[in-house]
Write a structure and sequence with these properties.
By secondary structure, the protein is of the alpha/beta class. 40% of the residues lie in helices and 26% in strands. The protein has a domain of 202 residues: 3-Layer(bba) Sandwich (FAD/NAD(P)-binding domain), CATH 3.50.50. GO terms for molecular function: FAD binding; monooxygenase activity. Keywords: Monooxygenase, Oxidoreductase.
Length: 347
Amino acid sequence: MEARIIGGGIAGLAAAAGLTRAGWRVHVYERAPALANDGTGLGMWPNAVRALAELGLADELRRRGKPQRPGVIQRWDGRTLVEIDTTRIRRRAGEDVYVVARPDLLGLLFESLPDGTVHFGREWEGEADVVIGADGAHSAVRRRLFGARHGLRDTGYTVWRSVIDFGVRHAGEVWGPRAKFGYSPLTPDRTNFYAVLETPLVPRTLDEDHRALLAHFGEWPDPVASVLRRADPERMLRHRLHYLAPSLPSYVVGNTVLVGDAAHTMTPDLGQGACQALVDGLTLARCLARAVTEEDVRTGLREYDRRRRRPTQRIAAAARWLGWISTVRHGTGIRDALLRTVGSLAA
């Protein structure tokens, strides 16, 4: 059986790795001339680590990434709302949460594939038993299948991300009205950070962005200002935050299937985007592993849709809700009291 995958990001490479191990002939078409070498730290939760383990890649993830340290969620005035105990996650799930740079994760998946699997700088070509749309949030495959009605919706917020040569002791997120800031250590002397701010659609240079971020977050508790002052504006990545709405009625049409952001673009508030992309790719490969006929393929694709559509759509809805509550304009006192209550019950 043969699969053609449109897009060489996390979801596409994960699907390629899983299907290759199952004996499929796989071609990945990636418009970019090479693997993406930008991007900041990604949280690999236990579900993603288990997916990589099935591909034989978990040990290499542990070598390239670092276990997530315990962290804290604070208010913008410095008061602690809740502590995040990652050791409790390890006890419950039997696995750490790892932080890995996006280029390292892409490289890990790419290196597991046979030479010639990924065709860089090329558009999709030819027919196949299965066509996999892994072309991201602005998916042309999704648009071809479902039209413009199921499209990206703007949250009104922008996120800036970067990695700086400066160490922080632990991970943290700081919530304020209409803004939040997060940071986590990648190594003892490197830190991944993101800043989320309500912004109008007005073009600005990255230098202007940096000054605006310092003006807004400069008085927030340490290490927020220290991290921002060390950020190089030219290395910051800037993205509007979007989500897919309305949710898709299916991830499968005929022999075409959607995975990752193409299927369920979500805001990054739960840190599950990359994790769900990995699980999508592995689940699809598992559902198609024994397919030898067209009917087998149809059955496998229906099973993939059954397993993945509703869980990923629930996660996307939860991420959107958390994004709203963490940057709420009014009622921050009620929000903070609820979060402290939830934190105390989970302790």
